[in-house]
Amino acid sequence: MTHQPQKPSPRPVPPGELRASHDDREAVVDQLRDAAAEGRIDFDELDARLEQALTARTHAELAVLTADLPRPDLPGSQAPLVLKGGISGASRGPGRWEVPGRVIAHGGVGGVKVDFTRVACRLTEVAVEAYGDTSGVVIVIPDGWAADTSGMDPGVGGLRDETTPDRLPGTPLVRLTGSGGMGGVVIRHPNHRERRKLHSNPTQN
Q1: Does some domain include residue 76?
Q2: Which of 32, 110, 132, 150 is the most exposed place for a label (fewest CB within 10 A)?
């Protein structure tokens, strides 16, 4: 009986050696331009790094270019957005707005609504702390985004998660924590009225 020689198993590729995509390069280019605008690097260094970013072949080559810069996808690298319902309520959206890594919403007496449907977000995760208080918090996320509500305390008002798990590649995961309080917390995709507005005026700011 003859034994067939075993073929060597393929060597796992370290993450840094994975090939970079056009989107990976563009994300680094955007981060470098933002860093120059903030005064973190001068314009001569920006030009040199941009040239390297546009010709980079692997993730490791891209990582070197931003290793000394704040990570834009880490909660805490940008000031959190804090919304407080107060007496008359508060909202953010549905126009275009810059999404930080962390959003804190207190429903208060007037309630809070956070609408992500028109934002362009490069983050891999968005941490949302929602406290329903008296009048509750409503969070609206686009189709294709997904939510993780396992860290949420429903409180007396409860938690209603009406989102679907069908997350599209390249979209953020909303990680929801906090407490429903008396007013409760709702996270959902756009309703019929909101969808009509999105379709009738898709470029609204």
Answers
A1: no
A2: 150
